[in-house]
Amino acid sequence: METKKIATGFDNLVEAFVEYISATFDTAFNLISDMIEGVLHGIEQVFLLPPFYVVIIVFGLLAWRTAGKTMAAFTAAGFLLCWAMNLWDETMVTMALVVASVIITLLFAIPLGIAAGSNQRVSEVTRVLMDFLQTMPPYVYLIPAIAILGFGASPAITATAIIAFAPAVRLTSLGIRQVPREQVEVGKAFGATPAQSLFKIKLPSALPSIMAGVNQSLMLALSMAVIAGIIGAGGLGKEVYRAIRVLEVGKAFDAGISIVILAIILDRISQGAVTQLKKGAVS
Amino acid sequence: MTAETKVLPLNSTKPATLMDQHAAKSEQVPAIECRHVWKIYGKNEQRAHQAVKTENISKEACLAEYGCVIGVVDASFSVNQGEIFCIMGLSGSGKSTLMRHVNRLIEPTDGQILINGTDIGTLSTPEMRALRAKKIGMVFQNMALLPHRNVRDNVAFGLEVRKVPKKERHAAAENALALVHLDGWGDRFPRELSGGMQQRVGLARALASDPDILLMDEPFSALDPLIRRQLQDQFLELSQKLKKTTLFITHDLDEAIRIGAHIAIMKDGVLVQIGTPEEIVTNPTDEYVADFVAGISRLHLVSATTVMYPAVDFLRKFPEVAAEQLPSVGPDDDLDTLVEIMTDVEANRVAVRADGKIIGIVTRRSLLRGIQGKPTEKIQFDAAQPQDAQAAGGA
């Protein structure tokens, strides 16, 4: 009985907290929501304004540069398939959602990762926070996001950004920690300031690890961007839910295939970038 | 009379140590001077330092009682302008720690470090940074080149940090690369270079900002013996040209002797002996140093004066020797020259002349003993001989 009371008490507390925040900082959150949507629309325009074949060619070339000829061919064929299934716009919207979330998450994750990589105490606190973020079931973030930011793209992006946050922080921190000690010493011995040491030695050295974090963030963001279709984010996620609701099995499957194609393309291109960077860094 | 009394205060009231004597040899301000530098690692470093200083507790006791590790114990030495000073010791002896005090990568627990007469402990952080960037170049054991930069930008790193314009610093980098015979390699990346070449880039990087002082932390230890020898020669040649004051760390006594004008031997954080290579080899201060120098070839180190019999004694014992007709060498000629002469002209004896005057005689016996590292014996006179000599003297 007692424990139940405590549990209910806690639930009420969380609800009250979310309500309090959304009520008190309403203006601020509206502003944030508008900003997030602004970023999303900007990126959407980049992918949607040019004719589809231009986008295909650009991504094909990008894949060629980072992951080789085979991947370039797959990218072109995969995107063509999405277009042929009449899901081009949805695919691009989802990609914009993923890219916007990852950009927003990196804006916070990389500085925090650098701080955690440079300071033991920050690192310990961050680790607990990241464990919490990563083990929480993703759906849980959706509801407070709606409560605070309303229905639509911006809560979807926020929830996606939160999900994508942890790996970027962890791998940035790891990368900074793994900078060889003697390289840091070189910076000091030649009179570099702490900022010069960070930008000229530590970050370039940590870049492969940071990019590995970006790759993982992209993958997590994609999975969340699809789930976020429930709360009004557009794109392939929305299409999947629509098709399921009206039992259009074929359509749902098409959207699923597009998601897989998008996942493979984003993964291989970003992983290819990591490999290229690592090749450059081996001494 | 007044002149004499004026001279007196110059005699230091402090007991003269080896280092003081060494320092006294140079009239100029030493380029680098360490005065009673201590480094103790741990939270209680100050208390541990007091205990070690006053009660002379052992390393083990220091660790057990205070949780502190002793790095450097009361190190004093000075390096003259333009000379190469080697610190030799085995790994863990504290030599790298001591060197890092000179550019204050490590703060001493106690003691002072002076660069060209300035106590660097009094410098602010920006002043210290400027000193490191302009006056002190450092070369690292494992090269420590930055893998994401090409050779030119690695060499220009120190200048880039000082915000020297790109054109200027690239020109300086090319010059430095030419010094180490790597011109034309600027666009390559460190990974494309062999170990020896990478270390030459490391040296060029230290030279690029034309510093007064070079700190070299076991620069050639990671290289294979043949390359090491080549780089030593190249470095010596370069050093004669540039005349940079150099603090050179090595665990190899052969290398220290080849390179250093003075050598300090370090053991468990203590500088056990400081001297010229010849002093260290012919007159080791304790068994530890003696063990080290036992295997060292004396041929190029020991001078004729060390192995000669004093001319007066020798000619008294062997008055029949026509000293004036013997082949002769100068007092600073090494044993190798003596061997050369004795084997070439089949002479059994060689005279040592200083300013034309014969000061000593080297025989085969004294030369061979000298090569072995044994001291030259005193000439024993038979009971009858002194009278002969007296007679000869009287005649």
What features would you highlight for this structure?
heterodimer; A: 283 residues; mainly alpha; MetI-like fold; 12 helices; 0% strand; flat; B: 395 residues; alpha/beta; CBS domain Like; six-stranded mixed sheet; four-stranded antiparallel sheet; 19 helices; 43% helix; disordered N terminus; disordered C terminus
Describe this structure in words.
The complex is a heterodimer of chains A (283) and B (395). The N and C termini of chain A lie far apart (64 Å). Chain A is 86% helix and 0% strand. Chain A is mainly alpha-helical and 283 residues long. The model of chain A has no long low-confidence stretch (mean pLDDT 89). Chain A has a single domain, classed as MetI-like fold. With 395 residues, chain B is an alpha/beta fold. In chain B, strand 9 (262-267) and strand 10 form a beta hairpin. In chain B, helix 3 (45-55) runs antiparallel to helix 4 and helix 9 packs across helix 10. The longest helix of chain B is centred in the middle third of the chain and has 18 residues, at 225-242. The radius of gyration of chain B is 26 Å and the shape is globular. The chains are: A mainly alpha (283), B alpha/beta (395). The interface between A and B is medium-sized, with 22 and 29 residues.
